Amino acid sequence: MYEERPPGPDLAGRVACVWHQVSESDTTQLVVPDACVDLIWGPEGLFVAGPDTGPMPTAMAAGDTFIGIRFKPGAVGDVFGAPVHELRDQRVPLSALPGLPIDESCASRPEWRLEAMRAAVERRLSRSAAADPAAPAIARALMAGRTVTEVAWDLGFSDRHLHRRAVAAFGYAPKTLQRIVRFQHALRLARAGMPLAEVAATSGYTDQAHLSHDVKRLSGVSMGRLVSPLRVPA
What whole-number distance in Å separates Cα of residue 163 and Cα of residue 161? Predict the structure, then answer.
């Protein structure tokens, strides 16, 4: 069982959703890159899932409960007290990061954990620096198929300046971010039932073979495997 909910007005500017998952069997879930950073409370405690560049298989036992707060792409800023690129492809215990201390003993029941996480994130956001205001425009332009040089020009940046801003906000260089946002766009279209040739054309791939290659590179499996939902909105 997996459910997502809106984060509420206090977090809506920086957070995409809050989520709750209970594993119904012993399984391995495939997490694929989405340019997001998650704060997660799992069976082993609190940890941060940084921005991924490839598939991240996650072992789960029957009954395992995970509760998460998912930051929007480019919106995590300095919440965890570490540059986001240092979290890339990492699962880091929250206790190893200086920015967001949460007393795990204060929430022994699953239904209390999200409230403890929300309260800590709200306090942290109230006194931390704002996220890069250019981040949404960077992601939108790259997903729309603009080249890195075109995006830099549109925003009045040099290519080098765009690179710095993208790494600081998303944890990725612009080319990597472009590949990931295009992949996510294609995945949404495929899950909505669009034929793959049309998915490729609509989401900016040269052809269906290009789509298949990129999907395999980012997820390790075919699009056919991915269209079985990994994250089902509530």
Answer: 5
| Nearest of 116, 115, 76 to residue 99 by alpha carbon | 76
Nearest to 36 by CA among 184, 159, 146, 137: 184
Q: In what order do the strands lie in the sheet with 65-71?
A: 2-5, 15-22, 65-71, 37-42, 45-49, 91-93
Please give the chain's pLDDT, 234 residues, in tens: 889 999 999 999 999 999 999 999 999 989 999 999 999 999 999 999 999 999 999 999 999 999 999 999 999 999 999 999 999 999 999 999 998 988 888 677 777 899 999 999 999 999 888 999 999 999 999 988 899 999 999 999 999 999 999 999 999 999 999 999 999 999 999 999 999 999 999 999 999 999 999 999 999 999 999 987 544 333
Predicted TM-score (pTM) of this structure: 0.90
